[in-house]
Amino acid sequence: MKTLWQIFAVARTEFRFGLRRGGPVVTTILIGLVFGAAILLNPLANLSMAKDDLNQFLQNTTVIEKWTAKGYTMDIFRQQAVGMMAETTVFMVYPAWFTLLLTSFLLLPAATAASLPADRSFGVAELLHSTPISGGSYLAGKILGVGLTVALIGLLPLGLFFGVLEWAFLDAFQVWVPMDVVVFFLKFTILDALPILGWGLTIGILAGGVFRSRLAAVFPGLVAGFLSIFFWLAALSVPSMQLDAAAYYLLQNYHSAALNLIDKATGSTPPPLFGAEAPIIGIGRVIVMYLIIAVTLFILAGLTRLWLKWKENF
Amino acid sequence: MITVSRLTKTYGKKVQALRGVDLEIGSGMFGLVGPNGAGKTTLMRILAGLLRPTSGKVSVFGNDVTTGRGKKAVKEVLGYLPQELGLYPDLSALEFLEYIALLKGVTDKVDRKKQLEEILELAGLTQDARRRLRTYSGGMKRRVGIAQALLGKPQLLIVDEPTSGLDPEERVRLRNLLAEMSAHCTVILSTHIVEDVSQSCNDLAVINLGRVLFRGNPGDLIAQARGHVWNLAISGERPEASLTVVSTMQLENSVQYRVVGNPIRTSKAVSVEPSLEDGYIWLMQKSRIQG
């Protein structure tokens, strides 16, 4: 119980500190914005065209009569348009995913590497080491605290993303973002973006643990992040796809509003997102991915713990 | 009881910070005096379980601090003020002290609140407790450092140069506070300011170049200097180079020096009663002569 309180205390202080200092705040917002822009840019390019089509449709009574005769009401047109937009937005996660990986691993470890050296450069480390907290609890608290900061700050760009989606795309059609799009992005945030961010920040904290100066810790943070890109793609991605197992699983199982509509209208089963030849990834593969991440981080944390014990008798 | 036996500490291959230190420290207030670089901080850090000794034995309340278990046991009862204390500039004093209280295992909310209120009051920080630490003066930061050391009701309080950066009034207040604390726990006060020890410790050791030069009470240290402290009133010349000038006072027709040592010409010298500072200087002088 005392250990949990100690971990909580370190995490809370790191969280407060993170929010008040800005390194992880700026980085996380930047990652969110770059990723969000990568998803939205392509659909945005088509937006004006879609709006023009809609306006022409609404002004042309002949066309409306023709479509109405075929059973297509304004409502169906609107839903299909929304579905298509939703479909495009979600599918853009596929090419944008690598941007998330790249920005997360190149920025986040460098930003969080200063977490442990900060205690030394502020002159607090000796005091902390004189308390009964163990090195393991201290590390756990640090990772949890930075993680909470990043998770909370990550909600800002996510909220902004939904805001832009609504404002830029769907407001023109006078509808809300479809619920299955919201659910997809929430699932994606929790099941894939969070592990990527978690890895990035943990790697940064552990790499920085070896250094005394905050500035010196940035470089190993960058190197660790750079190596992480190769690790992630080699160990966790789906063969022949530039996506990790969790992202692929989510996209593979995504059934958009548009596909639903087509399904209902034609009675046919829509094709899978990655084509008929694409590999099928089950939840088991996703669990293996999480296990690999957990075990690797655990080993790295153990090594950092040993370093602290050897170097600082902590 | 704290027992230190044949303790050595070498940094790298050349710097010998401690060279076979033997000490026994009982309850109450213990002063460790020595010049800068004497090895005081190294000894304090070893006692606090922060530094591994190169060789020798250290037992604190029966716990061997060179083992993981012993180190943890010592930290459970320790209040520590490092020589170079830093604070998180973006936290308030209250947030920082609550953080340390939790790390020290004060998990009961009511108890923690009570301790924080008492300690803030004791340190004279109640009014400023919610201000960010970056806005604190040097003296206030030092008081936060002292406050955190007192959290968790420690049985062993190690304070390394606690009065540096404090104004005279704050120094007196701190000395009194430590003396009060020594009624309930063992206090080890490390300092190079002899006055701090003379006002509050009845047991002390003098350390230099990693060796204990003196171990006893202030009276014994003073007694050693008896017959070696002089008032010397001279004009137009300086005291002999072999003497250590403790103080200088300009008189009407001459300059009066208070010196420690053995002057060759004693015609103008008047032997005076030594103070603890004189005793300390005489000891240092002797150790230099003896090499």
What do these coordinates show?
The complex is a heterodimer of chains A (314) and B (291). By secondary structure, chain A is mostly helical. Chain A has 13 helices and no strands. Chain A has helices at 2-21, 23-59, 61-69, 74-91, 93-112, 115-121, 125-129, 135-170, 179-208, 214-236, 245-252, 257-266, 283-312. The radius of gyration of chain A is 24 Å and the shape is elongated. In chain B, α8 packs across α9. In chain B, α6 (168-181) links the parallel β7 (156-160) and β8. Chain B is 34% helix and 29% strand. In chain B, the strands form 3 sheets. A 6-stranded mixed beta sheet of chain B has the order 6-7-8-3-9-10, sandwiched between helices. Chain A binds chain B through residues 1-2, 5-6, 8-10, 12-13, 16-17, 20-21, 121-124, 126-134, 313, and chain B through 45, 48-52, 71-72, 75-76, 78, 80, 82, 84-91, 95, 98-100, 102-105, 107, 145, 148.
Topology:
The complex is a heterodimer of chains A (314) and B (291).
Chain A: H1 2-21, H2 23-59, H3 61-69, H4 74-91, H5 93-112, H6 115-121, H7 125-129, H8 135-170, H9 179-208, H10 214-236, H11 245-252, H12 257-266, H13 283-312
Helix pairs in contact in A: 1-8, 2-4, 2-5, 2-8, 4-12, 5-9, 5-10, 8-9, 9-10, 9-11, 9-13
Chain B: E1 2-11, E2 15-25, E3 29-33, H1 40-47, E4 55-60, E5 63-64, H2 68-76, E6 78-81, H3 93-103, H4 109-122, H5 138-150, E7 156-160, H6 168-181, E8 186-191, H7 194-200, E9 203-208, E10 211-216, H8 218-225, E11 229-234, E12 244-250, E13 255-260, E14 269-271, H9 276-290
Parallel strand pairs in B: 3-8, 3-9, 6-7, 7-8
Antiparallel strand pairs in B: 1-2, 1-4, 4-5, 9-10, 11-13, 11-14, 12-13
